[in-house]
Each structure stands twice: as structure tokens, then as C-alpha cells.
Design brief:
The complex is a heterodimer of chains A (306) and B (361). Chain A has 12 helices and no strands. Chain A is mostly helical and 306 residues long. Chain A has one domain. Chain A is globular, with a radius of gyration of 20 Å. Chain B is of the alpha/beta class. Chain B has 2 domains: 161 residues, Response regulator (Rossmann fold, 3-Layer(aba) Sandwich); 156 residues, Rossmann fold. Helix content of chain B is 43%, strand content 20%. In chain B, strands 12-10-9-8-6-7-15 form a 7-stranded mixed β-sheet, with helices on both faces. Chain B has a 6-stranded parallel β-sheet with strand order 2-1-3-4-5-11, sandwiched between helices. A two-stranded antiparallel ribbon of chain B has the order 13-14. In chain B, helix 3 runs parallel beside helix 4 and helix 7 runs parallel beside helix 8. Classes of the chains: A mainly alpha (306), B alpha/beta (361). The interface between A and B is large, with 48 and 47 residues.
Chain lengths: 306, 361
Amino acid sequence: MDALAATLLSVVTAATPLLLAATGELVVERSGVLNLGVEGMMLTGAVAGFAVLAAGGAPAVAVAAAALAGAALALLFGLLTLTLLANQVASGLALTIFGIGLSALLGAELVGTPVERLPRLSLAGLSELPLVGPLLFGQDPLVYLALAVLGLTAWTLRHTHLGRVIRACGDDHEAAHALGYPVIAVRYGAVLFGGAMAGLAGAYLSLVYTPMWAEGMTAGRGWIALALVVFSAWRPGRLLVGALLFGGVTILQLHAQALGLFAVPAQLLSMLPYLATILVLALLAGGLRRRSEAPACLGKPFRPPA
Amino acid sequence: MAWTATRRQLLTGLAAGAAWSLAPARLRAEKDRVVKAGFVYVGPVGDYGWTYRHDIGRREVEAALGPQVETSFVENVAEGADAERVIRQLAAAGHDIIFATSFGFMNAVVRVARQFPQVKFEHATGYKTADNLAVYNARFHEGRSVIGTIAGHMTRSGIVGYVASFPIPEVVMGINAFMLAMRRVRPDAVAKVVWVNSWYDPGKEADAAKALIDQGADVITQHTDSPAPLQVAEERGAYAFGQASDMSRFAPRAHLTAIIDNWGPYYVERVRAVLEGRWKSHMIWWGLKEGMVEIGPYHPDLPASVRKAAERVRRGIIDGTVHPFAGPIRDQSGRLRVPEGKTLSDEELLRMDWYVEGVQA
């Protein structure tokens, strides 16, 4: 594998967990719910997937367990905010704290356990092609899953009845309710989907990115995913741009350091991914003169009129 | 970030709760001469690196002093104002001695020490002392001289990748000690340094290691806390070294040896000193000789000649015949900083802000 392919592969690896978690959160927010618990759900997914793999489970089972664990935590959030109408911001933050603690507790015995990395796709002939081989046909299965789900999400939101219902719940839940749509049920569905995707993002970290379990190993990626949703103006296409840009600049600034390219402090280079992503997404938002898709009812509790 | 803030608030809430519930216990403790030792950690005990090793030290205190000691710890304490609250609450909860185990806790522990003159404080890797505030530090750079020697023998490309956290003197002197030892073996070797600006971010540490290997490094070393760079080295066919603890299980082929932090004996001695009423403030900087820094087991496949060279450096540092910073030392621009026959003093090391020849940072 040549250096360029290896570098591009690193970019995809860095972008994938962000993309997974952000896609889930995008759907949650488009349905009108703000779940700040992404970091906690990611960690819970990471530890659940790792535990299954370490216990000898099949990779597919481990990935499924991670998604389930993330969804289980999301269900808790749904009960609090959708059924009991608790404040979404406070509940989301509490979910993150809870997820950090829960994953540390569940994973205490797993610290220091090594596992095999999930296998990469390997297609005879194709995966060995120079440059495009490893990039297009040699990724981890979760990379393809992330892209597929993103595409499906974009299509669903835009072109299907379900997508219109989800957006209606996010934009005007009173009207959606008046039209007879089950606002609460739709939001539950979105929240569970968001949890499962965050769990997958966590699994990507603990099974592929760095195959290990360590407390707090997400290191803030859940928050970056949340920010990406906002900066992408709730549009799946821009989410992909943002995630790849953030991952890409992160990797490139590490390469620039190793090459000694810029005579600027490393701290400045470390800021680049954040600056570049915000700048490009802001320009994209302004330049295209298209309105943001910010859901009008984002974070507002819905109590069905009696 | 928001979550750390809330997490801290939760922790301080817990600590405050502990302060209330432990108040009667404290009275009991004083009657039976039980020493209460508190530990403040910057990371999770499950980091398998820095905090993990401090917690092993705490457990050694419990094992050695048994019923005469009660220990407690607070993990994931952010450096800054929240550290001060946590340390103050531990002091208020009746702890006799409190170990603050991160450089960034320094100003917090200095302030709390002033408010609680009867409590003993110990601060790791800092430089401010008081009558009831001692400072302890480990000469990690001595370990880096040993692994630098090994790296010089094992690198084929002559390029070593260094995954670094923050450009503070401790890290800078580690890079320099490593480089000087490596060049004594392989005069044309270079060390490429990549800063990840974090002590602990497995993903980013792995990315940095990948970038370094992509640019020709065939030995990876790190001054960050997770085993992720070792995993990358294992996968990509490079060599690497464990940081703070033996990490060989993460990289059975690549892991040549490890620099191991060994805080236990010091913690046991200091808690015992409180128990026996002879605790005094001091500032110590211990290394291989005192056993605060250790070199882990060598990889079985490490050639005997390399092992011998490494041992020569390790033993030499212990008996004083080898100094990690013996002249002649030139800096990056080629200027002679330390002439032949001279060595750098501890004071000069503790404020080191320049790189030796061969470092690309």
C-alpha cells in the first residue's frame, strides 16, 4: 500500500465515527428532538461491542450489540423527554454523564484486553488495485454502512412520506399532530435510530479505529458530531463534506508536522480541523443561498392536546 | 466543554456528599490512628497509562499498610478551578495526606495547602513547595535514554516517529534524552515529532503514529498515555515502546520494552511517614536508581547485543557513570550547547525549551 493510499485511508477512518454519530443525530434533530447524549451513547456502544467481541462473539454480533446498547440508552432519553417531558438539554447532558460512568463500570474488567481488529473488505483483484483498490474496495464494513445509511437518510428525508412526516414533526409538531401524525411515536423512532447510530460510531472506535477498550476513549468525538450537524445546517450532503473535511484536515496537519512543513506552533495546526470545517460549512451555507433546514421545533417538548 | 463541566459538577457534588458522610468517620479515625490518604487523578483509572500507574501505587499503599490506612480517589478531575474544589473537599473530608497527581493541579494544590495547614499535600511533577506541600517527580528521561539506545539499534530507516502530547519541559527533555541516546548508536538518525495536543486521545494518537510510519518511521515512541500507537506499530510492522506501563499485550511483536512509572514505594513511604508523625516537605526527583522509573522486560526476540547495550545505559545511569545529558550536545541549529565533559544541571533540564540535533519538531 503506498503512502498516499494509506493517508487517504486514515482520513476515511477519522471521518467515519463522526459521520455515523452525526447521521443519527441529524435525524433526531430533524424530528425536533435535541439529544446531547451522543458522547455517552457512543461510549456505551463502544464498550458493548468490545465486550461481545472479547467474549468470542462474531464481529457482526458485536456491531449489532453496540447499536442495541446505544439504542437502549436512547430509549431512556426518550422516556425522560418524550413521555415525561423532561428538559431535553438537561436530559441529554445527564445521558452523557451516565453513559461515561456506565461504560467505565461495564468496561472495568476489559481494560487491557486485546482483540482482533474487524476484518477489512477484501475482493479478489479489486482490493489490490493501486490507490483506488484499498480506498474503494478495501475499507472496513462499517465505512460502507456509514455511507449507505447516510445516503438512505438523505433520500428518505427528501423523497419519502416517512421523511416528510419526520420533518413535519420537527418543523411544527402542532400541525403534524393536527394532521393525525403520531408525533411522539415518530420522535421515539428517530431517537432510537440516533442511539443505534451513536452506538455504531462507538463500535467503530473500539473495534476498528483503535481495537481496545479504555474509559473515555471517544475523547470528545460525540460533541464534534453534534457540532457537525449544526454546521451542516441539518443537510446530509454537507454532513459528509464536514466529516471528511474534519477528518482530512486532522490527518493532514499530523502529516504536515511530521514533514516539518510549516514553521508554526503545533497548537495552531491542531486548531485547523475546527477552523477549516466551520469556515467551509459557513461558506457553503452562505454561498449556496439556500436556507438552513433548522427544525423550528428543535428541543421543544410536545404535549398532545387532550 | 459542556459535558466535562457537568461531569465535574457531579464529581464535586459527590465529593461534597462524601464530606458530610465522612465527618463522623474522621473522629473515629483519629482515635485509632488511621491515616486517610486521598488521590486526585487527571484521567480515568482505566487509561492503562499514567493514572492507572498512580492507582496501582494507591493500591500498594492499601496492601502495605492494611487497616492503618484508608484511601480514596477522585478520577477524571479537570486541571484548573475544579481541581481546587475537589482537593479542598478531600481536605475538608478529613484526609491526612492528599496526592495531586498531575502537573496542572499545581496552583490548585498550592492554594488549598495554604487553607489546610494541618493536612499534608503531595504534588506530582510540579515545582512549588510549602511546609505542608511536598513535590515528587520521576526522571522519566532516564528511561528514554534506555529506549533511545534500543531504537538506534533497531531502526533500519534511521527515522523514528515520536508521538508527543504538549511541548512542556518534561516532554521536551524526554525527546532530547531519547535523541541523544539514539545518536550515540546511530549518528545519522532523526526523530520526527508529531504533537497531538492531548495526553489521551487513542484515535488521534493512532493517526499520528500512522502519519509517522507513512513518512518512513520504522520505530514509534510516544509521550501520550494510550496504547493506540503501539497497535498501529504492530499492524504496520514497526517497533514501539510501552508508555508508563507494560503494554506488550497490545503489540506482542512490536513492543520492545516499556518505561514503567513505579509510584508505589514512594506512596507507601510517605503515608507511613504521616502515620509515624515524621512527614516533612521536600522536593525529590527520583529515577532508575531509586526505582521510581523502571524498564520493563525486553522482548524475547531483541538481539542480545541490543539488550546488552540497553542494560549498559540503564546500569550506567543507576551507578552514575552515564548521564543522559552529557556533552557534547548541539541544538537543532548545530550550536554547541553543552561542551564535552559538562552535563546539564537539573535546573536547566526543568526549563528545557530547545531541541538537540536530529530532532524534527
